[in-house]
Structure formats: structure tokens, C-alpha cells
């Protein structure tokens, strides 16, 4: 097959030019997108916190499910980022377009499947947490409203992955920022009501999120289908071909499995926290986890950018350039992680009180942030190194380490929780984060030495 022309104004070549400038150009919009996703949840909590900590617990329990759904959606998103990035690095725009069509088809199938499942059967999931009856009813009502948005969420993440793999992280940023602004405007209106709009409580928060996400999806479709669209205005739906589908699954499944399992472990940790700390245990973990997203989302933005950068340079045979990008990213993440760690350790209660003003809630949440503050640097190290492995197409090592040590959290949380209460659950999370970051970096250094001996690290 004849090689197709590759680089158009819509695609960015990451194999040439300043490494640091290209990383920032790609990572800053991605980081902003991550913060936008985090802000969706924080805005909900900010307003729902005024309804009380029980309502926060109800929404937080469903937030765990949405986290799991985001993780499943990584099958198509990560598959798009890596396969499209590597196709562009290999100068095969025709392959990139076919991969985009396949990941979009896969995202729609998965999203519809899970959306219908949770719309029709919300109760089995809600009962998992053994919440008080009133809190469980609120949670089920929230899930019924948000479930139709699951296919929308899958497609949004997939389209973001297509743009990221093409080196154009700025487009998803602008589109997602628009959705956030709409959500910010709709949240208080639908939660508390105004004039002819009735107060809907937590269901209003779900509806605000759903409506804003529909707008985001429509904007993505418009951008991709406009004249001179990305990758030649590829088809959204195709009959899957074995070769492309298997490669997407090979790239995306390990990352998705790792994150799905991580979400499942956190659901079990939330359940354990509720046994030792009641609804305040769930409130601390879910709200504290959203606040912790300051470091998680920043790291994830830079790690995703690093993955796209490494994918193009790895396919172009420029591993030394990819290694320098990894070092730059580590330095930036180390600086930010130090600042956030100090803030959590020294001002955890005050930070938590901004979202849930009940004294009991922010004292308990302050303990969560204090303990997790000690592991923020190692969490950022793990996520950044995972981005490097993803770009190399070696998504299995991070999955192995994540699954092993996230599994360890459950028995460790039960052991410590039985002795020191709910804070034992938080220490189980912090200690295993420290181990994951350290071991994954060591694995990369071993891999790099092997590649160097084989003579595969060059310019």
C-alpha cells in the first residue's frame, strides 16, 4: 500500500524540535482537561455539601462507579492515543484513520452496554456499600439520572484520545472547558431550584452533569466532521477488522484492567471505611480523593502527554529523545508533588472544610489528607512512569504492579483498621502508593539498561 501523506495542520510532529516546549504544549491542555474533569466533581460536592454530609456520601458512592466506567473507557481512549500516535510516527495516516474509526465503534458499544445496565438495575450496585436507607435512596436516584450519560462519557474520552494521539490536546481542552462552564451554571440552579425550576437535590447535580456532557459530545462531533477535519474526517462506525481490533485491545486492555481493578479496590476500601467510620468514612475518602486529584490529575495530564510523545519517538527510533522527555516530566512532577504534600500535611482540615463545612466531616477529612500527603510524590512517580511505559506500547508492567499492590490494600486496610480505626485504611493507601512508585521506576531503569545493551537507544 502506498504511504499516505501524514503531517497536516491538524497533526503535530513530536519527533522534532524542543522537547521541553513540546511537552508543555501537549501537557498543559491535558492537565487542564484533567482539572476540568476533577472540577465537575468538586463543583457538585461544593453545592451538595450544603445539603449535608449524607448527600455527599450518596453522590460519592456513585462517583466510585463513574470512576470505574472511566476506567473501562480507557480501552478505546488509550488504544486511540497509542495506535494513532505510533501510526503518525511511522508516517501512516491511513492506519491512524482506521484506528480512530475502530476505537469510536468500540467506545459506543461499551458505553451503551454499561449505560443500559445501570439504568435498569441501579440497586445491586448501591446496596454494595450498606448505606443507611435514606442515603441509599439518594444514591439510586442519582445513578438513574446519570446512567444515560455513560455512552456519552465513553465517546468523549475516545474523541479526546484521538486528538491526543494526533498531538492536538488543545482541542479537547477548549471543548471540555465549555462543558465545565455549563455545568457550573446549571449545578446550583438544578440542585436548589430557582423560579419555575424545582429544587432537585442530588438528582439535579446528576442532570447538570448529563446536559453539559451532551454539549461536549456535540462539539466533538462538529469538530471532527467539519471540512478538513482531523484524520480526513474518518468514519465513526465501521465493521471491526480483526487486526485493528486486536491491537487496540492489546494496547488498551492492560491499562483499563489496571484502572478498573483500582476502582474496584477503592470501592471495597470505601466499604471498609464505612464500617469503621460510618458515612463520614465514605465522605472522607470520596471527597478527599477528589481533592487529591490536584496531584493525580496533574500527573495524569503530563503522563498522557509523555505517552503520546514517547509513542511517536519510539516508532521513529528516537528512544534517547523519549528518555529526556521522561526526565523533564519527573522534575516538574517532583516540584509540584512537594508543594501539594506540604499543603495536605499542614492545612488538610482547612482545605477539606472548603467543600464540606460540617466540623465532624472536615476533621475526619483532614486526617485523610494528612496521611495521603506523605505519598503524593510517589503517586506522581507511578503515574508518570506509567505514561512512559504506555508510549513504548508496554502497558503490562504498570498493570502488574498496580494490581498486586492495590490488592494488598484490602487486607492491610482491614488489619490496620481493626487496630487504629478508619485512619488505618488511609495508611494502607499511602504505604502501597509509596511502594508502587518506587518499584515501577526500578522496572523502567532495568528495561532501559537492557535496551541500551541491545543498542536500541539512539537519536
Taken in chain order, the helices and strands follow as: HHHHHHHHHHHHHH
Task: Give me the count of strands.
Answer: 0
Q: Indicate the low-confidence ranges by residue numbers.
A: 1-7
Rounded mean pLDDT score: 81
Structural class: mainly alpha
DSSP helix count?
14
Molecular shape: globular
Using only C-alpha atoms, the radius of gyration works out to: 22 Å
The helix content, as a percent range, equals over 70%
Distance linking N and C termini: 28 Å
Strand content: under 5%
Largest sheet: none
Quaternary: single chain
Q: Number of folding domains?
A: 1
Main attributes of the structure:
459 residues, mainly alpha, 81% helix, globular, disordered N terminus
Describe the fold and architecture:
The chain has one domain. It has 14 helices and no strands. The protein is globular, with a radius of gyration of 22 Å. The two termini are 28 Å apart.
Question: Brief description of this entry?
Answer:
The protein has 459 residues and is mainly α. It has helices at 19-48, 53-89, 93-120, 123-126, 133-146, 150-165, 170-192, 202-225, 242-315, 319-353, 359-373, 376-391, 396-420, 423-453.
Amino acid at each position: 500500500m502506498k504511504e499516505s501523506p501524514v503531517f497536516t495542520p491538524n497533526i503535530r510532529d513530536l519527533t522534532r524540535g524542543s522537547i521541553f516546549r513540546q511537552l508543555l504544549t501537549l501537557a498543559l491542555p491535558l492537565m487542564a482537561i484533567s482539572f476540568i474533569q476533577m472540577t465537575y466533581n468538586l463543583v457538585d460536592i461544593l453545592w451538595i455539601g450544603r445539603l449535608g454530609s449524607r448527600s455527599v456520601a450518596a453522590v460519592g458512592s456513585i462517583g466510585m462507579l463513574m470512576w470505574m466506567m472511566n476506567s473501562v473507557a480507557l480501552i478505546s481512549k488509550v488504544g486511540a492515543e497509542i495506535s494513532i500516535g505510533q501510526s503518525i510516527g511511522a508516517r501512516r495516516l491511513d492506519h491512524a484513520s482506521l484506528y480512530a474509526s475502530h476505537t469510536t465503534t468500540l467506545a459506543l458499544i461499551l458505553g451503551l452496554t454499561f449505560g443500559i445496565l445501570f439504568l435498569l438495575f441501579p440497586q445491586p450496585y448501591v446496596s454494595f456499600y450498606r448505606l443507611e436507607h435514606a442515603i441509599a435512596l439518594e444514591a439510586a436516584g442519582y445513578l438513574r439520572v446519570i446512567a444515560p450519560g455513560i455512552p456519552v462519557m465513553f465517546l468523549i474520552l475516545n474523541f479526546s484520545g484521538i486528538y491526543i494521539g494526533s498531538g492536538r490536546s488543545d482541542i479537547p481542552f477548549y471543548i471540555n472547558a465549555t462543558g465545565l462552564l455549563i455545568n457550573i451554571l446549571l449545578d446550583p440552579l438544578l440542585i436548589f431550584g430557582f423560579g419555575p425550576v424545582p429544587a432537585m437535590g442530588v438528582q439535579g447535580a446528576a442532570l447538570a452533569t448529563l446536559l453539559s456532557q451532551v454539549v461536549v459530545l456535540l462539539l466533538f462531533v462538529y469538530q471532527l466532521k467539519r471540512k478538513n477535519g482531523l484524520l480526513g474526517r474518518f468514519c465513526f462506525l465501521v465493521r471491526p477488522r480483526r487486526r485493528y481490533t486486536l491491537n487496540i485491545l492489546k494496547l488498551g486492555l492492560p491499562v483499563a484492567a489496571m484502572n478498573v481493578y483500582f476502582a474496584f479496590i477503592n470501592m471495597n476500601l470505601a466499604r471498609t471505611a464505612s464500617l469503621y467510620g460510618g458515612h463520614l468514612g465514605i465522605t472522607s475518602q470520596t471527597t478527599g480523593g477528589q481533592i487529591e486529584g490536584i496531584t493525580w490529575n496533574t500527573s495524569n495530564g503530563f503522563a498522557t502527554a509523555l505517552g503520546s510523545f514517547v509513542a511517536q519517538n519510539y516508532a521513529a527510533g528516537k528512544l534517547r529523545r523519549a528518555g529526556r522527555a521522561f526526565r523533564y516530566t519527573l522534575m516538574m512532577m517532583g516540584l509540584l508533588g512537594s508543594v501539594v504534600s506540604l499543603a495536605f500535611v499542614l492545612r488538610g482540615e482547612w482545605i477539606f472544610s472548603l467543600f464540606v463545612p460540617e466540623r465532624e466531616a472536615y476533621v475526619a477529612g483532614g486526617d485523610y489528607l494528612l496521611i495521603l500527603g506523605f505519598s503524593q510524590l510517589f503517586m506522581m512517580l507511578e503515574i508518570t512512569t506509567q505514561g512512559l511505559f504506555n508510549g513504548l506500547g508496554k502497558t503490562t508492567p504498570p498493570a502488574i504492579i498496580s494490581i498486586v499492590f492495590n490488592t494488598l490494600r484490602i487486607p492491610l486496610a482491614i488489619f490496620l483498621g481493626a487496630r487504629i480505626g478508619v485512619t488505618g485504611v488511609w495508611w494502607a493507601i499511602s504505604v502501597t502508593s509509596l511502594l508502587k512508585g518506587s518499584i515501577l521506576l526500578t522496572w523502567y531503569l532495568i528495561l532501559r539498561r537492557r535496551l541500551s545493551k541491545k543498542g536500541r537507544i539512539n537519536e
